[in-house]
Design goal:
The protein is an all-alpha fold. The protein is built from 2 helices and no strands.
Length: 60
């Protein structure tokens, strides 16, 4: 079994798991997805703020 075959099988299992979880509990899945997107957005917002603060401190 090659690594490519294992990668394809793993991706298929993940996709099937997500489809089944969305199908069985769409409300909970939507909430979890919204929380994930919010956390990712919060992380990038923090990175941008810290970067801007760093650049401003260099200019001072």
């Amino acid at each position: 079994m090659t690594f490519e075959t294992i990668k394809k099988f793993g991706a298929t299992v993940v996709v099937l798991f997500l489809v089944i979880s969305f199908w069985s509990n769409p409300s909970g899945s939507a909430t979890a997805f919204a929380d994930f997107v919010g956390d990712v957005g919060g992380f990038f917002s923090s990175v941008i703020d810290k970067s801007a603060e760093f650049v401003q401190s260099l200019a001072s």
